[in-house]
Design a protein that fits this description.
Blueprint lengths: L1 E9 L2 E11 L6 E6 L2 E5 L9 E4 L24 H8 L3 E9 L12 E10 L5 E4 L1 H4 L2 E7 L5 E10 L4 E6 L22 E6 L7 E15 L4 E9 L11 E3 L5 E10 L8 E5 H12 L7 E2 L2 E6 L1 H7 L4 E7 L4 H5 L6 E5 L2 E5 L3 E5 L2 E2 L3 H9 L6 E8 L2 E8 L1 E2 L3
Parallel strand pairs: 1-5
Antiparallel strand pairs: 1-2, 1-7, 3-4, 3-19, 4-14, 5-16, 6-7, 6-9, 7-8, 8-11, 9-10, 10-11, 12-13, 12-15, 13-14, 14-17, 15-16, 16-17, 18-27, 19-20, 20-23, 21-22, 23-24, 23-25, 25-26
């Protein structure tokens, strides 16, 4: 089981209580309905870890005045100290007040609570980027800058599918130094990274590490999957949620969102939402709009070539089930009717195996998610599928993914 945790301040003091969203780790099957960076809805899974805690992460910043909506230019690598001196002033601590509702966490009805997270200045208009789960349910938001000054903020927009949100703070222009977003597609395993944030309320904390892996999937607050996240061993802990991961030039390569931990603390496995996803989602939220994502409406499973050979079918992406009334259902896609175990792994059988979309080869569930993510609702796509040993082409008009 994967959990999100927050540090909650109550009248009795500070305590750590489970965040209200429980995330379930799944192995393969997923519902395709993606925008940039968020593609699947967890449906069924294979193996999963037991008693695994996912904690929310840090921040980073860069006081560059360049627009966050454009790619940051590559620069000479900086030392950790240089990055901190330049970027730390753009990192903020976010305090959110929420109502516990009836009963409350400690059984006292009507009691308000406060939780802390992190964020970073996105533009000179006062827009600040953080995680959606940091501000979810907020009745009041305040932003504290590195100089100790605090200002009220309001929610501009949020997107649970990517776990990103934008808040606007009414702060002096002298404090609004936007962070530059790098091109996360150029990040490589082994690259040096740093994170700046407010773990356990300790504002302005910096940690360093490397990019441990790329293209990881994590579960969003609404149970859709956030794809292509960056894994890092830079230390991140409670209170770091909504911060950013920085490259060696001090540019944002991701917004830290979760950690995987058996202990509940930093175990060296953290995940950041890639900056290219941030760029796409935040640009839609800043104007007060909502994020629209294309939606196919199928649960899927990758069928690798070795398994396909033993099953007697095609390698690609098996349609394990179809959502009623979805674009896939209307187009006549066929779902699996059985299953077969190959080398200890159970694979769905009897359904359409998607091998290409608009002529682009599809070899895995992640590939299909990415292809759907790159299209807008209403787009017509041509799926190449293998059905009962024959190749067919099916035209599907992608819908808008439900929230």
């Amino acid at each position: 089981m994967i959990h999100l945790w927050h540090e909650i301040t109550t009248p009795e003091g500070t305590d750590t209580v489970p965040y209200k969203i429980l995330l379930i780790a799944v192995a393969s099957a997923a519902l395709i309905g993606a925008g940039v960076g968020a593609g699947t809805y967890a449906a069924v899974g294979g193996s999963s870890k037991s008693a695994t805690t996912v904690v929310t992460p840090p921040v980073s910043s860069s006081s560059s005045s360049t627009s966050s909506s454009t790619f940051a230019s590559q620069q000479t690598p900086l030392s950790v100290g240089e990055i901190y001196k330049r970027d730390a002033p753009s990192v903020v601590q976010i305090t959110v007040t929420t109502s516990s509702g009836s009963g409350g966490v400690f059984g006292q009805g009507g009691q308000s609570q406060q939780a802390q997270g992190s964020g970073f200045v996105y533009d000179t208009q006062g827009d600040v980027v953080t995680d959606q789960h940091v501000v979810d349910g907020a009745t009041a938001i305040s932003v504290k800058f590195a100089n100790g000054a605090s200002y009220k903020a309001t929610l501009v927009g949020s997107d649970a599918s990517s776990d990103l949100a934008v808040i606007k703070v009414n702060a002096p222009a002298s404090l609004l130094h936007p962070l530059a977003l790098a091109d996360s597609s150029r990040v490589a395993v082994g690259d040096g990274v740093v994170a700046i944030g407010s773990p356990f309320g300790l504002q302005g904390t910096i940690t360093s590490g490397i990019v441990s892996a790329l293209h990881r999937d994590i579960t969003a607050p609404n149970n859709f999957t956030i794809t292509d996240t960056i894994q890092t061993d830079a230390a991140i802990n409670h209170g770091n949620s909504g911060g950013v991961l920085l490259d060696s030039s001090g540019h944002v390569i991701g917004v830290t969102a979760q950690i995987d931990s058996e202990s509940g603390g930093n175990d060296g496995v953290g995940f950041a939402i890639p900056s290219n996803t941030v760029r796409s989602v935040v640009s839609q939220l800043v104007g007060g709009g909502s994020v629209q994502r294309a939606y196919l409406g199928v649960h899927i499973q990758t069928i690798p070539s070795d398994a396909a050979a033993q099953i007697g079918g095609a390698a690609g992406v098996e349609v394990t089930s179809i959502v009623a009334g979805s674009p896939a259902s209307k187009a006549g896609l066929k779902a699996a009717t059985g299953s077969q175990v190959v080398n200890g792994q159970q694979y769905a059988t009897g359904g359409d195996v998607i091998t290409a979309i608009d002529g682009h080869s599809v070899s895995s569930a992640d590939t299909l998610q990415t292809e759907v993510a790159g299209r807008k609702p209403g787009t017509k796509v041509t799926l190449t599928v293998s059905r009962n040993g024959s190749t067919k082409t099916i035209t599907v008009t992608l819908g808008t993914r439900p929230s």
